[in-house]
Amino acid sequence: MRKTNLSMGTEEEENEINLTPMLDVVFIMLIFFIVTASFVKEAGLDVNRPDNQQQQEQTESENILIQIRENDEIWLDRRLIDPRALRANIERRHAENPQGSVVVQANAKSSNKMLVLVMDAARLAGVYNISIADPS
Amino acid sequence: MMRRNNQAGSGEQEENEINLTPMLDVVFIMLIFFIVTATFIKEAGIDVDRPEALTRDRMDDAAILVAISPGNEIWIDKKVTKPSDVRTVLEKLHQENPKGSMVIQADESSTHETLVIVMEAAKQAGIPNVAISADE
Q1: For chain B: N or C, fewer Cβ within 10 A?
Q2: Could you tell me the residue range of the domain that residue A22 belongs to?
Q3: Residues 41-100 of A with CB under 8 A from B
Q4: A20 lies in the same domain as A57
C-alpha cells in the first residue's frame, strides 16, 4: 500500500476499475469490423429504364434511337454504324437536338459488351441521359 | 526509485504498469471508424469479365451486386438465382439497406435478355438506382 499522486494521498489502487474485460470486448469488436469491412470499389454506368408511360412520352420528342442487332451490329437511323464512328454520329445528332436523350434498343440475344460500348459512346458524346428500351 | 518487480509476493507494481489509456483511445477511434464505414455490401460471388468503358462513375452507395456469368446465370449473394426468383431476392436485400443502389456486373458475353430480366426485377423491387458495372 502506497500513496498515489494527484489525489492528495488517498489510497486509490483498490478503487481503480479493471479495464481488461472491456479491452477484450473492444478488441473483439474491432477485429470483427475489420474483417467484415469490404471496401468494394465498383465503377459503372447509370441506366434508367423507362416504364411504358415514359416510353410513349419520349418517343414524341426526338430521341436518338440506337439499335443493337442480334449479331451485335449497331444501327442508327437505318444505317449500320461502325463502333468507332458511333461517338461522332451521336455527337452530330445531339447537336441537332440537344434535348433528346439516347434510347438503346438491343436484341435479346445481343451481348452486353455492345450495350456498354454504346452507352459509353453516348456518354463520351455528352449525352448522359441514356434509357434502355424493351428488347426487340 | 528502483523497485523490485516480481510477480510473486507483494512487490510494488503500480509504477511499472503500462498506461493503457492512450492505446484505448486509439482502439476506440479505430472501432468507430470501422463501424461507420461498415456498409455490408452483398457481393455477387463470382468474378466476371466486365465490359470496358471510358466514362465510368464510382458507385459509392452500391449495396447489392448482381453478377451475370458468361453462361447467363444470375448470381446474387453468392448463390445462383433463377430468373423467376430474382425479384423476391432483390426485395429482401433491398429492405436490409433501402438507401443503397444496385450494380449489375454483366459479363461481356452475356446476353441482353438476362440483363433486362435483372433490371426489370430491380424496378419491381423498388430499387431506385441501377448501374451496369464497367472496367478499364
Answers
A1: N
A2: 5-38
A3: 41-47, 49, 51, 68
A4: no
